[in-house]
Amino acid sequence: MAREWTELSPEEKREERFKQWLSPPGVSFPTPQAEKAYKERVTRFTRAFKLQKPDRVPVIPPAMQSYPAYYAGMDMNTVMYDYDKMKSAWLKFLKDFEQDMDTFVPPVMIPPGRALEAVDYKLYKWPGHGISTSVTSYQCVEGEYMKADEYDALINDPSNYWLRTYMPRVFGAFKAFNTLPPWTSFEEIAIQNFVPFGMPDVQAGFEAMLEAGRESLRWLSVVGEVAMAATAAGFPGIMTGLAKAPFDTIGDTLRGTQGVFMDMFQRPEKLQAAMERILPLTINSAVSAVTLGGAPVVMMPLHKGADGFMSMKQYETFYWPTLKKVILALVNEGIIPVLFAEGSYNTRLDIIGDFPKGTVAWYFDRTDMAKAKEKIGDRCCLLGNVPTSLLMTGTSKEVKEHCRKLIEVCGKGGGYVLAGGASIDEGPAENVRAMMAAAKEYGVYK
Amino acid sequence: MSGDYVNLLADLKEDEVLKLTKERIDSGEDPMKILEDSRKGMGIVGKRFADGEYFLPELVFSGELLKQITELVKPHLKQEAETKRLGKVVIGTVAGDIHDIGLNIVDFMLDVNGFEVTNLGVDVPVEKFVQAVKDTKAPILGLSGFLTPAFDAMKETVEAVEKAGMRKDLKIMIGGGQMDNEVCKYAKADAFGKDAMAAVALAKKWIGAS
């Protein structure tokens, strides 16, 4: 690059990122066909995101989480603990759906069970750990992990708060970290600073952390193998980074749903200040996750701002302002935020599309897609809306017909990616195929 | 004064309503009367929620206010509060699913609309549902679920109720997250409700109280 990255305009950054995604540095394709297929697919997604007409509507298989395990006759519990089995399941899915897919999601959403166990993670339950082994997903445990009177501690020094207050609560293994010295200040002759590290329970905590680290690396190398196999076979990834709305970070991770809703009445200023404090942290971690060569996309699952959760006024006061700042920051970095609105977002459509054309994408679960296309489809790419219930319990004919209608409504002029309303963890493979067939049959632009 | 009290609670005026609660207790008023007024206030909250004026934050906050009021009043109560109820409903989140935001809203709305609710909580095994229906003789069962694994758990719960010979006297509604009419058909439940208001309407219809 002739100019420094920081001197580029948002458009130039976006172009550069798309260019690098199209020809990822360091990737060599085994065959010219694989390379050609990879570039075709990347171009298809790129044009859809930019609201241009691709050759046809791209499609994401609704299998971002544990579906490949189910498809291979395994379950979530098995693949969370046996990485070889995980790899074989995902590679089987890759091979069997080779003719159908536009993108492939490696098992990044399957966390390593033993690493979570090593640190005694309490924020989630997963199959075989708190819920039945046969369950197909991990689930968040609602709780007030940050107390109402701890806002100032979080705001004043987040690192210190995570390390010495939050981690001891959320990880059983780090219980003794509340005895660690704060690292915000430092003694010149650091004698006292090291004393707590001599304590057996603190040492046990760090040993657990090292073990979780080793386990995570073992897991990552297998996930990396699968991801590389997929790229080599011509399938680009679609999720490079993940980020949350600051309101959800407070509501899901820290205060819990009850807590954050109470705070809207009892301490609104603290809540706002905490969201502003978390904002730059969110932006930094999302931007740094998007390396050149990967899809210039950050997926943002949105939870507590959905229709019915809060009023429009509350949404505009508490949820949207900091979320919008995250979105704009990503746009300015040339990254496409894909905002995954779980539930429905019908009442939010009037205000959520106000971005430069082709810079932001909305992934809808149950939102009225005709209305969405009409209200924000001229500026934002739309994704999603094939109901999980239909995919899991309907017939392949019904699935195909539903997809046909969706493409008809949302595909007009480009700017639509066919995708599930959410991911499925089980269900007939012919329904997954029917969805992808629909994109090819009905999604071609002339 | 009691009208003001009802409205203060309905308008979620925390400081005022708690202050007034203390004053009413100190003046020696019958604590049952205070609880009755709280109930009326919560009824208005429920109505505002149904009308789209209030949302989850208001429900959560009003629940907290009611808790605080009850704690103030409780030491002065001579007998347990008893209110006439429309009918019984058993609810719970099905096995394998630990989400309860939606479940608790349904609980709240059924309660303020006069139903006696037995809330079994989350990740409820099928046997526990069967037992609760048996014990309470409730004519209505509400199954909640957020994620797709709940599809099968709902189906299994309905089957278990059927196997226990209780299906024909029982109306079953489902709701939450990824649930819809497709899932209702699949699970062989009687109805899908898209929100807590729908749950109230269904329950009222089924006991003939609408």
Describe this structure in words.
Chain A is 49% helix and 7% strand. Chain A is of the alpha/beta class. In chain A, strand 5 (297-302), helix 13 and strand 6 form a beta-alpha-beta unit. The radius of gyration of chain A is 23 Å and the shape is globular. The relative contact order of chain A is 0.13. The mean pLDDT of chain A is 95. Helices cover 55% and strands 11% of the residues of chain B. Chain B has nine helices and five strands; from the N terminus they run ααααβαβαβαβαβα. Chain B has helices at 2-10, 14-26, 31-50, 56-73, 101-112, 126-136, 150-163, 181-187, 196-207, and strands at 87-93, 115-119, 140-144, 171-175, 191-192. The longest helix of chain B has 20 residues, at 31-50. Chain B is elongated, with a radius of gyration of 18 Å. Classes of the chains: A alpha/beta (446), B alpha/beta (210). At the A-B interface, strand 2, helix 11 and helix 15 of A face helix 4 and helix 8 of B.
List its traits.
heterodimer; A: 446 residues; TIM Barrel; 9 strands; B: alpha/beta; Rossmann fold; 2 domains; 55% helix; elongated
Shape of chain B: elongated
Q: Largest interface, per-chain counts?
A: A-B, 36 and 31 residues
Protein structure class of chain A = alpha/beta
Count the beta strands of chain B: 5
Regarding quaternary structure, what we see is heterodimer
Rg over CA atoms of chain A: 23 Å
**Total number of helices of chain B:** 9
Tell me the β content of chain A.
5-15%
Give the second-level CATH assignment, the architecture of the largest domain in chain B: 3-Layer(aba) Sandwich
- If you compute it from the alpha carbons, what radius of gyration of chain B comes out, rounded to the nearest whole angstrom? 18 Å
| CATH-defined topology of the domain at 5-64 and 239-442 in chain A | TIM Barrel
**Helix percentage of chain A:** 40-55%
